[in-house]
Amino acid sequence: MTRPLLGVVADDLTGACDLAGGVADAGLRTSVTLGVPTEPIPSEVDCAVVALKSRTVEPATAVEESAAAARALAGVRYVYHKYCSTFDSTAEGNIGPVADALVELAGPGAISVGTPATPQVGRTQYLGHLFVDGRLLSESSLRNHPLTPMTHPDLVRVLARQTDRSVGLIDHPVVRRGPTAIADAVAASRGVHRHLLVDATDDADLDHVAEAVLRLERPVVIGGAAGLAVALARTHFPGTSQHSRPSELPQAEPGPRLIISGSGSERTREQVAAFRGQIVRVDPLALAADSSTIQRLTEQLEEAVRRDDSAVLLSATAAPSDVRDAQTELGKDKAAALVEDALAQLAVTAVGKLGVRRMIVAGGETSGAVAAALGAKTLRIGALAAPGVPWTVTTVQDRSIALLLKSGNFGDPDLFETAWTVGP
Ligand SMILES: Nc1ncnc2c1ncn2[C@@H]1O[C@H](COP(=O)(O)OP(=O)(O)OP(=O)(O)O)[C@@H](O)[C@H]1O
Ligand SMILES: O=C(O)[C@@H](O)C(=O)CO
């Protein structure tokens, strides 16, 4: 029996979908489980993805859940630590502690090798510095992220602050020399560094890194965003791309459609601004001030859904200054929890009472909260509505629910209109 190529520990749900959509599109049979799996990985799977909600939790919790996920994935060829393509981390930072735990579990002498570079969505790493659409990370809109503001572009330093282990760089001149040079550089780093970040500015670089990684003496833990995972898929199983294959997902039942946005990202703000249908607004200050707010929102949502059959948008998305005001008044965690809980509760009402069967959710934390409240356990992966944003189907109480779980900065500005045309 062949072993799954990749067992992925993903720090948020939209990141899990991003990676799963990419590797499925490259031809890997892919499963997504929400939370640590309790069942063995099905033997026909090439890539088993475990979606956690560990990006913004206490480091000790992130470590405990990630280690449990890695143990549940025992037997895969490579454990893949999926973090964000913009290296999103809290001030304490969970990427370092989780990477430490995963190399520890991988066995004596293990090393982690990875890169957040995902050129398809404009993320590149050069001389250890991360760029977003050609701008330094710290000068991109990520500096205003509501939970994980990224104000330092030098990832070697960012990661080194999160771990006591030594962090090294395989720089672009080495990457450009090809897989042998990269593999030699990794071999020379064993015993010197415990974590290696690798530059990549285009897909050819990622293919070199993937080929080098597949040749490495194990134990090795691979780290990164979707880019390197997709490069591993196309390097390991060349010629199996699904681009021309129809989606195998079942058709969703007809019914009202809902978009839920708790994302603070710049791209989501553009998508909300471009949306022309009915919008129900969710405000953390109103939620905090009056416990009847959720009842009022429920009524507004019911009315909007019944009024006409176009998609309704339920949105907490606000300008960074408004988010900051709410955080100053309520505290960052309380503001986030109020919004996540309200959106999750309204999602449950939408499915249980209003007959919603197709839903777009914007924001990683928001998607995690919504999917957990719905009771989703696994996702089947379908067609991509945009790079990094696949349609998925989950089964909840014998009902198929189609979910498009969107990372904040992904998708074109008109995604909330166009995504339905490729959905199940
Ligand atoms: N108006 C608001 N005021 C304060 N916090 C908010 C507001 N709207 C949303 N939030 C919170 O901000 C967080 C946004 O994170 P989320 O991961 O969902 O989306 P994102 O900002 O696009 O990030 P990502 O790129 O990871 O998807 C959530 O915890 C959400 O509850
Ligand atoms: O890597 C990315 O950018 C996404 O998959 C993600 O994790 C955003 O939250």
Automatic annotation (TrEMBL):
InterPro entries: 4-carb_acid_sugar_kinase_N, 4-carb_acid_sugar_kinase_N_sf, NBD_C, NBD_C_sf, OtnK. Pfam families: NBD_C, SBD_N. Its EC number is 2.7.1.217. Signal peptide: none annotated. It catalyses: 3-dehydro-D-erythronate + ATP = 3-dehydro-4-O-phospho-D-erythronate + ADP + H(+); 3-dehydro-L-erythronate + ATP = 3-dehydro-4-O-phospho-L-erythronate + ADP + H(+). Residues 258-416 form the Four-carbon acid sugar kinase nucleotide binding domain. Transmembrane segments: none annotated. Residues 238-265 are annotated as: Disordered. Keywords: ATP-binding, Carbohydrate metabolism, Kinase, Nucleotide-binding, Transferase. It is an enzyme of class 2 (transferase). GO terms for molecular function: ATP binding; kinase activity. Residues 6-232 form the Four-carbon acid sugar kinase N-terminal domain. Belongs to the four-carbon acid sugar kinase family. Catalyzes the ATP-dependent phosphorylation of 3-oxo-tetronate to 3-oxo-tetronate 4-phosphate. This is 3-oxo-tetronate kinase. It comes from Kribbella turkmenica.
